[in-house]
Specification:
Length: 261
Amino acid sequence: MAHIDKYTPGSFCWFELATSDQNAAKSFYGTLFGWTPDDMPMGPGEFYTMFKLEGRDAGAAYTLRPDMKAQGIPPHWDIYMSVASADDTAAKIAQAGGKVIAPPFDVFDVGRMAVAMDPTGAAFCIWQEKRHYGAGISGVPGTFCWADLSTKDVAAAAKFYSDVFGWQIAPGEHDNSGYLHIKNGENFIGGVPPAEHQNPNAPPHWMLYFYVTSVADSTAKAKELGANVYMGPVTIDKVGDMSVIADPQGAAFALFTPAPK
């Protein structure tokens, strides 16, 4: 287990579920990952759920707002990148060809954020910490462990994220699969699958991976809880096992168990 108390800029730092049924989501993820919900009132009839694992924040959930539903936005997982300055990064996003959907704003006194979209259409959020830096635990079952960017224009996306966050995006050593690895500083944090391995019907998006001890067992459990299984379980030689599923409300994510070393 690793406790996290600080993120370097460019790291994935927070993971937030936008759902159509918050109470059902609490039950599903609590059973699947062992998360304990901690509801925080946000207004009349509204609350923000912090998911706790071993007493530390692992992610969160909220109910899709009426304006989001009106735009046809489905339940989904959002990913946040840590930044030193939300305002400076938002300006970089615009300069690099991205779109700032929601300009930087303060979230009470806990941080400052913005919602953006890369030039290929994948949405993400940026987070400047104040009192809340993000997820506080990793390396145990039920924690975020990786993220893949699904986009048909890999070159444009790679240039954008490199310009904005300083990421290195390149093939792995001795890897001829076409998969690109994302490196933030000295840390590998995610990747970009080749376009031919992506769902041709899905719009560009970030796919979050959660670590489990057995992909087969967790996939079966998720299915019993009402999830849809889109892919797998499959074994990737020398990498690990994975599956892609959607919770009962339709938010997609991946499960992953690394190969034994």
